[in-house]
Amino acid sequence: MEEGRPLCYMDAVSECGWWEAGQLGKTDMREHWTLDSIDWSRFDRSKLDPALVRLVKAASLVEYNATDYVEYLRKVFANEPEMMKSLSRWGTEEVQHGAALGRWAEMADPTFRFDEAFARFRKAYRPAHFINADGSVRGSRVGELIARCVVECGTSSAYVALRDASDEPVLKQVAGLIAADEFAHYRLFYDLMGVQPEQQPGFWKRLWIAATRVSETEDDELAMAYYCANVPADREKDIPYDRNACNQAYQSAMFRLYKPLHIERAVAMTGKAIGVHPESNVLKFIGRALWQFVRFRVWRMGPPARTMAPA
């Protein structure tokens, strides 16, 4: 196996079929890496890509904010002890992702202060359903798990793309470890979907839930994280927050990392979550079409911005 490439979903999908690799996620959820597992001594500043540094700084804030998601999901799945245990473990691993990415980002950019940036992000980004949750915003517990599967599809693909694009050894290792976790988390939420006592929603409802969750990637979470990570607090007056500009800056940097396999596997995983066979011709067509869309967006947006310039 390639150095810096732990057992993770890209190996599974290419070698054994990820939808058949049920033990993969279960093993990872049981035996987890720590920050000490990372060989920080291999950090190589000469191989840094400034656009990737900006992405990682933003990603560290989103991942580290998992405690809010855990508390929300605890309210959705109240009175289910096994769910509480799984959610606690999931949240701990997500926070660890943020800590690992934050540590790398501080090495890559000595001006970056992870704790300060995270405090600003947490203050600025507080969705209403985090604060006043009264059941799932997806309409059911199964709907919530479908939405979580969609998120894990996106994150597992993104971290594999980040790993493949980076030449910096430590980032390559960290991204690979996180990608493996995100696939394990997908398996966790997918398996939990199947044991819920409530009636499963119909196909069109599942499709609507998935499509809605995908559309939320352009809300304030990623945009605000990108802003707080890349605009210092003392520059806020000069560079006010602009969601559209921050989303475009994030997407311009992230989209160009994707290759066809990253997109096609994310589509296959999403399809399975809503009840479509991952090797269906429909999903293969959608995967190819989405890849062309990503290529168009990359061309349309142009090179990633070097800084968050004033509006």
Report on this model:
The structure is a single chain. This protein has 311 residues and is mainly alpha-helical. It has one domain (9-301): Ribonucleotide Reductase, subunit A. Helix content is 67%, strand content 0%. It contains 14 helices and no strands. Helix 11 (220-230) packs across helix 12. The radius of gyration is 19 Å and the shape is globular. The relative contact order is 0.14. Residues 1-30 have low confidence and may be disordered.
Overall average pLDDT: 85
Summarize the amount of helix as a percent range: 55-70%
CATH architecture: Orthogonal Bundle
Quaternary: single chain
Indicate how many domains the architecture comprises: 1
Q: Tell me the distance between the termini.
A: 46 Å
Q: Give the beta-strand count.
A: 0
Rg on CA atoms, Å: 19 Å
Structural class: mainly alpha
Order of helices and strands: HHHHHHHHHHHHHH
Which spans of ≥5 residues are poorly predicted at pLDDT below 50? 1-30
Major pleated sheet: none
Task: List strands and helices in order, with pairings.
Elements: H1 9-15, H2 22-30, H3 50-64, H4 66-76, H5 81-108, H6 114-124, H7 128-131, H8 141-165, H9 169-193, H10 203-215, H11 220-230, H12 243-255, H13 260-273, H14 281-301
Helix pairs in contact: 2-9, 3-5, 3-6, 3-11, 4-5, 5-9, 6-11, 8-9, 8-10, 8-13, 11-12, 12-14, 13-14
Provide a brief overview of the structure.
With 311 residues, the protein is mainly alpha-helical. The protein has a single domain, classed as Ribonucleotide Reductase, subunit A, CATH 1.10.620. It has 14 helices and no strands.
